[in-house]
Amino acid sequence: xxxxxxxxxxxxxxxxxxxxxxxxxxxxxxxxxxxxxxxxxxxxxxxxxxxxxxxxxxxxxxxxxxxxxxxxxxxxxxxxxxxxxxxxxxxxxxxxxxxxxxxxxxxxxxxxxxxxxxxxxxxxxxxxxxxxxxxxxxxxxxxxxxxxxxxxxxxxxxxxxxxxxxxxxxxxxxxxxxxxxxxxxxxxxxxxxxxxxxxxxxxxxxxxxxxxxxxxxxxxxxxxxxxxxxxxxxxxxxxxxxxxxxxxxxxxxxxxxxxxxxxxxxxxxxxxxxxxxxxxxxxxxxxxxxxxxxxxxxxxxxxxxxxxxxxxxxxxxxxxxxxxxxxxxxxxxxxxxxxxxxxxxxxxxxxxxxxxxxxxxxxxxxxxxxxxxxxxxxxxxxxxxxxxxxxxxxxxxxxxxxxxxxxxxxxxxxxxxxxxxxxxxxxxxxxxxxxxxxxxxxxxxxxxx
Length: 449
Ligand SMILES: *Cc1c(COP(=O)(O)O)cnc(C)c1O
Fold this sequence. Notes:
Blueprint: H1 2-11, H2 19-23, E1 30-34, E2 37-40, E3 45-48, H3 51-54, H4 63-73, H5 87-99, E4 106-110, H6 113-130, E5 140-144, H7 153-157, H8 162-165, E6 176-178, H9 192-210, E7 214-219, E8 223-224, E9 230-231, H10 236-246, E10 250-254, E11 278-281, E12 293-297, H11 299-303, H12 325-340, H13 343-358, E13 367-373, E14 376-381, H14 397-407, E15 410-411, E16 418-421, H15 429-446
Parallel strand pairs: 3-15, 5-6, 5-7, 7-10, 10-11
Antiparallel strand pairs: 1-2, 2-3, 4-12, 8-9, 11-12, 13-14, 14-16
Helix pairs in contact: 4-12, 5-12, 9-10, 13-15, 14-15
The protein binds pyridoxal-5'-phosphate.
Pyridoxal-5'-phosphate is lined by residues 112-114, 117, 148-150, 220, 225-226, 254, 256-257, 282-283.
């Protein structure tokens, strides 16, 4: 154990982690899991309050998924999808097509949410060159302020989180931006309503002014996760779909975070009956077991890539571990469990319990706003509610809450000063109560009532 800690600090560069602070913190070294609990090398047990970074669905060490992966290991662990195929990748593709919104019939695999978005951007770009009716030079993308679509250079280009993205500015391609339709801190001169209307007007203006140059509109449907669980108003997604469709602009729905039950339906687009041209999936696709991602698209787009090999219409893109059989076997087993365990029914119940419990924080003097959609929750901590005055970022209030939660046997990971609760869709009600008890106690320990 002592060696592990020392070697972690000496050799492992952790993602999205200020390493100087990390090394002083004795962060848990997780050695095993059991249902919705995580065990560390010091013998502590924690409730997994963030679905192991938003990807776990049915819990850890789920017998059906474990068995599916073990059975596949006994056959083969990896074989390529470049010019060949494998049963789990075929079966998972078929199931995804069945479960996703109508019209999405083709599945392009990759390994992470970032690469799922990256593939969609490139396919959209190439599609406009090769589509029936003649090539068009549509090389601009529209994205939302504060968007997060991953950390590769293309996905960062369509992202908008300054803290993560600013330093790469000169590496990125230019995009068109529209404001996020959320109204916690509205610019001066606006009311909530007038600001949300302004956000819609901006979509129309940007699309009108650049209509024939825009390749696609990239959006996280309903909830902008990494931005701090920003919940869009009802109807915005459908509005974007209608405005893009009118102008021949493709829509890329990045459901990497919101997919697989987190907002109450299997996919967030279902809430507004929206059919995107691309659906990007990752995080929950394997139940949170293995790195697999998928970019789904329509026959129309796929067909533009057909032709004799020498015609140069091929999509020359793909990763070594694309469609990995172990990951796809886990994905198939996870989708089966949604049915056998009635996971979406559970989400309906647990998200109600969460809303009820969250109301306990409604008049907490340091809770500025509580945002929830299904099982995605953001509790924004502020110095003063009046005027939504933030804490000094040096205080790392969100991070302090994580440390306080750890002492109480709960794993959390904040987004700045937004405390995120992201229970697994299959988490039972008693554990949701435990999550709230511990999280609220941690908040009170850091910012007194
Ligand atoms: C997490 C996330 C990504 C990136 O996924 P990775 O697997 O971390 O590359 C992309 N889009 C959204 C909406 C996400 O939440």
